[in-house]
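Researcher: We plan to redesign the surface later, but first we want a full-length starting point. Tokens attached.
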């Protein structure tokens, strides 16, 4: 969890009756000095290190949203399946993989 998210969570807990918008919390965060924010950065680093120790096999996955968007255009699309069937009828080898943009 990054420093701003930690600040946001604690800020909302300290002021339970008020409904703060993300913009208001962002303004409060930006108005704080570097020394005030340092506490939240330290907590963030501590949480990150603790997570790494507890999950040594974890590997960060990048570009999740890109893969998610392209998933519907991958192997199971009707056009892709039709292409493969037509190609297999004329040759005995599978078609080459489509190049990602």
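Model: Full-length starting sequence:
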């Amino acid at each position: 969890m990054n420093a701003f998210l930690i600040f946001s969570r604690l800020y909302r807990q300290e002021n339970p009756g008020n409904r703060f918008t993300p913009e208001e919390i962002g303004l409060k965060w930006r108005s704080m000095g570097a020394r005030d924010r340092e506490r939240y950065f330290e907590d963030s680093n501590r949480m990150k290190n603790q997570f790494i120790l507890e999950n040594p096999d974890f590997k960060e996955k990048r570009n999740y949203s890109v893969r998610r968007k392209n998933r519907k255009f991958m192997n199971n699309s009707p056009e892709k399946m039709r292409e493969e069937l037509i190609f297999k009828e004329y040759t005995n080898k599978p078609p080459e993989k489509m190049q990602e943009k």
